[in-house]
Amino acid sequence: MTGLIQILIEGVLVGLVYGLVAISFVVIYRASRIINLAQGEVLLFGAYVLWSVTEGARAAGVGLPLPVALGLTALACIAFGVMLERGIFRPLIGQSGFTIFMAGVALLILLRGVTQLLWGAQSRTAPVILPEGALTLGPFLANTRLLIGALFTLALTAALHVFFTRSRLGLRLAAVAEDHVTALSLGVSVRQAIAVAWVLGTLVATAAAVVLLSGSILSLEVAGIGFKALPVALLGGLESIRGAPLAGVIIGVLEALATTYLDPITNGAASGVLPYVAMIAVLLIRPYGLFGWRRIERL
Amino acid sequence: MRPTGLWFETHAAEARVLETRRARLSALALLAVLAAMPLIAGPWLLGELTNLFITLIAVLGLCVTVGMAGQINIAQSAFVGVGAFATARLSGMGVPFWAVLPVAALITGAVSVLFALPAVRVRGFYLALTTLAAQVMFPIIVMALPMAWLGGLVGLPVTPPALFGIGLSTPGRLYWLCLAVTVLAVWCGFNLPRSRLGRAMRAVHDNDTAAEVMGIPVARVKIAAFFTGALFAGVAGALMAYFLQFVTAQNFTLFASVWYLGMLIVGGMHSPLGAILGVCFVTALQEGLHKAANLMLQSDSALGGGAFFALSSILLALCVLAALILEPRGLAHLWHQVMTAFRLWPFPRN
């Protein structure tokens, strides 16, 4: 019983990290109607920028204080988001969903290539930003890094939810998520929406990178988290900020249970396959997810 | 647009893909040059061309699913992998070569139907996500299955093909085999849009709600599109298995799928001509970069193999983005424009 609860605690904490990555998917979709397959690469890019201004700068002899380094990373994320909007997505406004999806796929290989060219393929130690260690709660242990990340995820969810449902800008973004052409005809700036979406998405992804990687190994394989978070975003509903952490917890707990009970029987495949089986199940049973918008087909 | 002075006296003549005698003659000449390649080319060029043919078959399959039916498929590489593993297993069990190719294709088709079934419920990029799931799950499942089934982490050796007692494993013979299959695949690719299924796929591509209203069974056509595309992938996988002589799950990654899609988009996805031009263009680009990287490696060792891979990814991504933003109809459209200008010269086009 103690073991089971410990597994559940770990599943919930890891699931909330998935939720955080899923939020970065949802933020971009919710503000611009772009499903960005390259989210894992965006996260990786943020992580490498963060590495450069902390560990990299220290190695070069310019040790920056942590808040300055974080500020610089945030600035780089903003510049990156604006650049993506200007260079790739502004010329594609009004194009079909297929074209925009394919632009995301092209972005995936572009970012992977750029990251590999700038930083090389070798793995390195990510900077320690959140404290390592474990919090003891009676007989149970909780990883402090993941715990802080989980609290951050919940706070961010609440803040983003208020932003998207209460603020003027957030409501304008919802119009863009509904339909580009309609939003344009109503005087909503789609360009601005896409820029905001990418800046927010990049910032959230980098925050997720901090929670995920603080003090562990940073390598190109980390980008795989993007594909793991995609089922989470889909289960929560692509338009729902609050759905993402909940779906993250569901997937995280299922994955933790599969790792413990199914992996020994299936040679380690169950936990790897589970998020995608869940994704196909969601698509078959409830394609718009738990809290997504139900779209009506019109001719 | 047809050139002036071209007329037809029979329906059969008008229905030809290659309408003019000059087009037929140039196609024959191209075929003759390609067939003569093993006699003149070295092993490197022959290997590259064989690889190009195999890629072309896979991309033609993608052209059916993505270009003709408008369904995004980012699992083509996994489907090629299914074909390759099926071939390795079947040839290992002593199934004759002439039966392996179609059976591998059918197995691949059956697997693709499994992942196309959500088409009944969802559309657009939601459907693309199920293919993404297929692509990501493929290596995990192959590596986790018992060693005796699909070779696990190590992979499977492939028994060399033989037809009527003649071994087909020498580079030259394998090249001819791939050429023959590619010609067949291209022929199918050009004729499929003119068939009943092709027209139904076109309608679904343009507007699936409208197609449904017109009485086209949309879900069935989408599944058929995936099935047809996967048949090509299965054949490509079988040839690839014979070409590599050893298959592992690491050969069939998401990246390969994205490359297939990139080739199709750069070439132009609405016609098989686009698939051909895209594959040739991207392969030439990649090989050129490879040569340049080799020269640079010899002169100065600052650049590693990783940098070459990174550069080729960046180059392909930029080509795809340029195609999407500047010329969504791809190289095929540019080709048509150049041909029209050439035909009308000295008069301006339009």
Backbone shape of chain B = globular
Structural class, judged by helices and strands of chain B? mainly alpha
Please tell me the overall pLDDT of chain A.
88
Q: Could you say what the CATH architecture of chain A is? A: Orthogonal Bundle
How much of the sequence of chain B is in beta strands? Answer: under 5%
Description:
The complex is a heterodimer of chains A (299) and B (350). Chain A has 299 residues and is mainly α. Chain A is built from eleven helices and four strands. Chain A has helices at residues 2-32, 39-59, 66-89, 97-119, 144-166, 168-178, 180-185, 190-213, 225-236, 243-266, 270-285; strands at 124-125, 134-137, 140-143, 217-218. In chain A, the strands form two sheets. In chain A, strands 1-4 form a two-stranded antiparallel sheet. Chain A has a two-stranded antiparallel ribbon with strand order 2-3. In chain A, helix 1 packs antiparallel against helix 8 (190-213). Chain A is globular and about 60 Å long. By secondary structure, chain B is mostly helical. In chain B, 73% of the residues lie in helices and 2% in strands. In chain B, the strands form two sheets. In chain B, strands 1-4 form a two-stranded antiparallel ribbon. In chain B, strands 2-3 form a two-stranded antiparallel sheet. In chain B, a hairpin with a 2-residue loop joins strand 2 (162-163) and strand 3. In chain B, helix 2 (21-40) packs antiparallel against helix 8 (171-191) and helix 13 (272-299) packs antiparallel against helix 14 (305-326). Chain B starts with 10 loop residues before the first helix and ends in a 6-residue tail after the last helix. At the A-B interface, helix 4, helix 9 and helix 11 of A face helix 6, helix 10, helix 12 and helix 14 of B.
